[in-house]
Every structure is written in C-alpha cells, then in structure tokens.
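User: Reviewer 2 asked us to show a designed sequence for the structure in our supplementary figure. I'm pasting the structure tokens here. Could you produce the per-position amino acids so we can include them in the response letter?
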C-alpha cells in the first residue's frame, strides 16, 4: 500500500483488460490537444510504473505508435478502448484514463490543458509533468 493514495481499479469496455493503480483520490488530469489525444479525446493522469499493475489482458493489448514512436498507445484488441498508455512525456510511467476507472474511488478531478500541438515547448515549460512518473 501507498500512504495517502487509494487503489483504483479499471479496465476497457469489454472487460478483457483490467488493471489497478495507486493514485490520489483527487486526480490531476491532462487534457492534451495533440493530434492523437484530440482524435481519441484522451484525458489522463500520470503515475509511476511501480504504482500500476495489469491484472489481466496482456494478450488482448495491441500498441500504436507514430512520429517519434516513444509514446506507446496501448488499447484492447476487442473493444478498442485505451484505458492506459505509456506517454512520451513519462516513458517510465503510465497515463491512465480516468473514465476507465471503476466507480467509487475518485473524489475530485482537476483538469489542466496542455498544448500538445507544441509538445516539446509545453513539456519543457511545464514545472512538474516529468516528475509525475517518479516514485
């Protein structure tokens, strides 16, 4: 267990992919306007890899990459839902889709817009995003 954090569980629409993640009950969500986040309406919060556990469905995941191929956009082969992914900004962590969490563990959500259209500049200027995947 992690002090001050709660265990959230979640997964894709069809239930083939399930995970647990330790994070605050008060989530800080990024709303990115880069090309893929815009198309997918990808909003996410970032956690260290050590606080994420895939419970089932590894064989049902597939990955899409583009441009620098550093972000690993994983999604369910059956229903197509991306419930988590490895963000380019934090390759040592996970971006978790809050709308894929099970009900009951989230208290509040604060959303921060990030200018992914100018990704390098936005990440360079952001004070904390790179540290969000650190344990």
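Assistant: Here is a per-position design you can include in the supplement:
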């Amino acid at each position: 267990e992690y002090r001050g954090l709660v265990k959230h569980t979640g997964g894709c629409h069809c239930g083939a992919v399930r995970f647990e993640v330790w994070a605050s009950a008060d989530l800080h969500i990024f709303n990115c306007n880069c090309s893929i986040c815009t198309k997918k309406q990808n909003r996410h919060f970032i956690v260290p890899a050590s606080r994420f556990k895939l419970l089932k469905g590894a064989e049902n995941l597939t990955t899409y990459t583009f441009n620098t191929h550093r972000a690993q956009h994983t999604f369910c082969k059956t229903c197509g839902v991306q419930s988590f992914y490895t963000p380019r900004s934090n390759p040592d962590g996970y971006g978790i889709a809050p709308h894929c969490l099970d009900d009951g563990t989230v208290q509040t959500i604060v959303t921060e817009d990030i200018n992914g259209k100018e990704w390098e500049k936005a990440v360079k200027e952001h004070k904390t995003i790179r540290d969000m995947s650190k344990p």
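For the response letter, you might also mention the following. The longest strand covers residues 26-32. The chain has one domain: 6-131.
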